[in-house]
Amino acid sequence: MNEPALTIKNLEKTYASGTQALKGVSLEVPSGDFFALLGPNGAGKTTLIGIVTGLVTKTAGSVSVHGIDIEKEPEWTRALIGLCGQEINFDPWMKPLDVVVNQAGYYGIPRSVAIPRAKKILGDLGLGDKMDQIGFRLSGGMKRRLMIARALIHEPKFLILDEPTAGVDVELRRSMWDYLTALTKQGITILLTTHYLEEAERLASHVAIINKGEIILAGSMEEVLKTHEGGTSGYGGGKLEDIFVKLTSEQT
Amino acid sequence: MPLEKQFISFYTIVRKGVIRIFRIWSQTLLPPLVTSVLYFAIFGTILGSRIGELDGVPYILFVVPGLVMLSVITSAFMEVASTFFFAKFFSRNIDEVLVSPTPTLVIIAGFITSGIIRGMLVGVLVLIVSFFFALPSVAHPLIVLLFLFLSSLVFSLGGLINGIYAKSFDSITIVPTFVLTPLVYLGGVFYSIHSLPPLWQTLSLANPVFYIINGFRYGFLGTSDVSIFICTAVLLLLTGILLGVNWYFLKKGLGLKQ
Ligand SMILES: Nc1ncnc2c1ncn2[C@@H]1O[C@H](COP(=O)(O)OP(=O)(O)OP(=O)(O)O)[C@@H](O)[C@H]1O
Ligand SMILES: [Mg+2]
Fold it and tell me: I need a labelling partner for A144 at 20 to 30 A (CA). Which of A77, B37, B201, B217 fits?
């Protein structure tokens, strides 16, 4: 499996409103990687993820997942991807177990297989005792974890997480990172967006920074930290954070 | 996606819809029952005793099929229009199935099937309630079933178009109030069109619901203002047209993608 998990070439997106969210983005996520896609609010991260997962139509460019074009074989690429989106979007009237088991159904997994698998994943994510509680009564952090469980139920090779740790407390965040790192050890590729740059610096092996619809930096974390100046702002934070601020403010 | 997996996905969508129908039964099943009881009591029993017979049957037996259809049509329509709209606009949980390999055709079939189930379920419940007011004879049970099914199908398809187009919840409630109810009332629920002036008779023939009510009534009484074949043909034609329109949306991405 040497094909990159994700190959994006000259991707452009202009919304019907006229907003040009992506202006020719090219990006490659190696298979098995923990990849951080960083960028300020409104940079185009969610748009990019939307196109890869088939929720947003592209204006130009091409996208392939594990070498398969998302337009030519959408059913194949969708089966490979697991998405944990930025917005909480499960049916709030449903119980976590049902949310996850239904999601399995959409991938053609029978309930007899999905139920034990869902219980295991929800348990691993610390939701074992909340499985039968109505969705809207979960706390913000629990909802996030339910979103992750839902994304994993069909055992995707490529997991996409759009700010999975927004609103999650420190302790849980750490256990979530451990959980995700363990997944990459099993060979699952992870593409992640986050505004916690210190954590991205510590966990990701590759990083790309997108600003105003353009990639302004991409490479292995090691390389990026080595070749760029940083650590002088006095705000604390990590080196990556300073590089990020420097580059994204330069562009304005 | 292999056919077997498509079926599992279809079943998942329908199962979710049916569980919802029963979970909020006081919004999905109860209102048409309450309205029907009122209609049966007022038009059937109280006014009906003064009207006497119409087309050779007691008035209540004449109005029951139309009133059942009123409930069936609105229920099927609202089921698909509102679940689709809510899934798209509020929690945006339609994305759950959109990111999956489920083909769009299966998604549509799933939503439509929930609408048919709710429409037919409400139809049967209202019919059962009508037994308390008058025991209708059923001349052609299969025609009754066929028209329950076809009209649920047609209005589920219509509800889907509405759900796709709706930009706010108002546009979901507008159609049942300002389009469906007038069509049903003017479609000959309470009268035979032979009692209308010629111009209105002709206009009634342009109302699709007229054929639904007449076909359905034929199933009970064995008589109708127009031939049962024409009624069936009109319904099949409508199904074809609405399927075509939904098919077109399907190809454009169902109005779901930005
Ligand atoms: N549905 C939409 N219609 C029109 N414009 C949109 C839509 N969604 C996003 N945009 C615009 O596209 C641009 C990129 O938005 P996007 O959500 O991709 O940013 P982001 O990098 O995910 O930001 P954040 O970190 O805040 O989540 C923004 O200018 C946004 O206003
Ligand atoms: Mg975003």
Answer: A77
Q: What would the two tokens of residue B210 be? A: 């007229």
- At B165, the amino acid letter reads Y
- The neighbour count for residue B75, using CB atoms within 10 Å, is 30
Query: What ipTM does the predicted assembly reach?
Result: 0.90
Q: Which residues is A189 bridged to in the sheet? A: A158
- Please give the full DSSP string across B13-46, using - where no structure is assigned: HHHHHHHHHHHTHHHHTHHHHHHHHHHIIIIIII
- Hey, are the CB atoms on B95 and A89 less than 8 Å from each other? yes
A151 within domain boundaries: no
Q: Is A233 part of a structural domain of the chain?
A: yes
Q: Is the dihedral of CA A213, A219, A225, A226 positive or negative?
A: negative
Distances (CA, A) of A242 to A234, A245, B95, B129: 9, 5, 36, 72
Residues B196 and B210: their CA atoms lie apart, in Å, by: 13
Flag whether residue A54 sits within 8 Å of chain B, measured between CB atoms. yes
B115 CA to centre of own chain: 8
CA atoms A164, A168, A172, A173: torsion sign: positive
In angstroms, the CA B7 to CA B9 distance is 5
Q: What is the pLDDT of residues A199-247, one digit of tens each?
A: 888 899 999 999 999 999 998 988 888 877 665 566 666 788 888 888 8
Query: Residues B141-194: pLDDT tens digits?
Result: 999 999 999 999 999 999 999 988 888 888 888 888 888 888 988 888 888 888
A129 is a domain residue: no
Residues of A in contact with B167 (CB under 8 A): none
Q: What is the extent of the structural domain holding A239? A: 6-90+156-250
CATH number at residue A192: 3.40.50.300
DSSP secondary structure of B180-209: IHHHHHTTTSSS-GGGS-HHHHHHHTT-HH
Q: How many domains does chain A have?
A: 1
Q: Closest ligand 1 atom to the C-alpha of A210?
A: 21
Size of chain A in residues: 252
CB B249 within 8 A of CB B158: no
CA distance A58 to A102: 28
